[in-house]
């Protein structure tokens, strides 16, 4: 008997694949409005600072999609899974991934985002675009909304915090301030009752409890430069505050809201935060990103297959 064939639309924010694609990428983020020369230079300089023309995020995402397909088919032999990429701001766009599934004869699919925490402004937007693309094509889709407390995800993050704390050598782990971070969003999501802030705190608490640490807090990072206020406090302000008011000298950052080496990790943390910490005389380390960690792949495989078993 032929196996049930299921498409998996793996969605993420996207990134330019090369330096010459940055302007088109930035224009898409700005909803078709090209950036000013100053804005374009600022973003180009950030990419240049971390990659020198090579884009690890694109490769990381490609590998995550490949590994998820392998993991799904290894763990669930009763179904044939085929993974497709759908990016928010770069090709292949979410609509391209949906179209390709339909052209390949896929009639059932599950959508999952490479972000464990749900917000109507992030994951919700991805789902909306995929649904709108799928319906006219007769493609039946169901979606994983969040997986922020999945045991394998918490275990993977806890292992990273644990091993990074060990890198501080003779410094007792209770003397290292662990700060969990995630991408800020506009403050208005709080008024909307959006679950994003609460889910991030729940994940952070679960990781801290598993590692056995009490000296931790949460901060936001990478807020957009817009007229409307974004969630805070920002990590740069937090570093200055804890150094000035509490005399904190050792900090471990765990960017819990990111699952691979994004610009926000490689630049905002590895360059901006480390530069500030050095200026303040603090030691700052960062946990390694999940990327294709088998535990993260198992998390995604599990939530996709579980969603498939549930009613639409």
Automatic annotation (TrEMBL):
SUPFAM superfamilies: Chelatase (SSF53800)
Gene3D superfamilies on file: 3.40.50.1400
Entry-linked InterPro entries: Ferrochelatase, Ferrochelatase_AS, Ferrochelatase_C, Ferrochelatase_N
Pathway: Porphyrin-containing compound metabolism; protoheme biosynthesis
Catalytic activity: Fe-coproporphyrin III + 2 H(+) = coproporphyrin III + Fe(2+)
Protein residues bound to Fe(2+): 183, 264
Name listed for the protein in its UniProt record: Coproporphyrin III ferrochelatase
Originating organism: Paenibacillus flagellatus
